Amino acid sequence: MSRYGMFAATAALGVVLCLAVGCGKKTLPDGGAQTDGRTGRVPPIALFAPLGEVCSLPLPPGEAMNLARQLSPARQGLSSWRDLDFALSQSLAYVESKPAAATAISRPGLSVTWARMAQSLSLLRSLLPRLDAEPQLLAENFLWLRLGPDFDFTGYYEPTLRAGRKATAALPYPLYRLPPDVRPGVPYFSRKAIDRRGALRGRGLEIAYVDETDAFFLHVQGSGRLLFADGSVSHVLYAGKNNQKYVSLGRVMKEKGLLPEGGVNMRAIREYLAAHPGERAALFDENPSYVFFREASAGPIGSMGRLLTPWVSLAVDRNTVPQGALTMILAPLPGPDGQHTRPFSALTLPQDSGGAIRGYRMDLFCGVGDEAAHVAGHLDAKGAVYILLPR
What we know:
Layout: H1 3-21, E1 55-58, H2 61-70, H3 85-95, E2 103-107, E3 110-113, H4 114-131, H5 137-141, E4 142-156, E5 160-163, E6 173-176, H6 191-195, E7 206-210, H7 212-221, E8 224-228, E9 233-241, H8 249-255, H9 266-275, H10 280-285, E10 291-296, E11 313-316, E12 327-334, E13 340-352, E14 361-365, H11 370-378, E15 381-390
Parallel strand pairs: 4-14, 5-8, 11-13
Antiparallel strand pairs: 1-4, 2-3, 4-15, 6-7, 8-9, 9-10, 11-14, 12-13, 12-15
């Protein structure tokens, strides 16, 4: 058996054992999970044997079958696997626009053309009517390969912001269209220059006005919904950026001692900003990156130009995993307390990208609403990624 084959078998056994016995996860007498004494965080539940090398490992049929049987449409907000058809059609349209014979994936142990990726998507679409009752079809019809090293998982969502067409005391902050003088790759005005010095004021680029903290998080998410006083809703989508370096506000606040290690999440950041309004501007300006938007009647739309599907769509680095691939992920999601204790296995589709998504990182699109905001605001864990190809 080759070194890769031996590792695949070991990894497969690790998944089975982890799911069966929790990989030795300790619990307190009251049932609470054991916390890390240094960070105060509960370590994520162990769902798979870690994979640290760059590789593409074929799974044994039995392990593919085990993973296929774990999948559930309900876990992804779908009433049936038939509901996945729209998302698959979006990816298929994108993949079929590529040269069929050209290479879509080239990595150690794996080379895949766009034509074969299209076959994966078409095959799954044909199986959807039977998949609810016959999940084993995924293992019987697809070759499963685990991609290494393991990916870092974060989340994003579509926030809903109160908005107005004119600035008010409650909604003073403008969302700007992409200025016509922005050039690809050329640094433009910084956040501080735009927000504090009015670099874009008076140019007629304002789309709407919102709360400044809401706007800052909208810049991070890349798209959102605007809810106006008359009840009307409009989507704002990513249109471009100022080509300045992105600096994580959470990281800045942790380094300044404003938030504890292990306690950096969207809720904690918002609570601190609400309690210290005088510090907001200086903290926001630590991130010179700035996002511009466009208004639309539907959204959100991923970078491949297609509508995204909650709990299915992923933002990826296209140099690591191409958009249009058919993937399955296994990762722990945050529970109500923010600790990563909820197993999440899902059929997923890379359909988006982002300026901060680099290398072995994936951003799970969580949709809209409180649950989406909670998961997106707390998700920060390692996950296993599998690519599915037709046999």
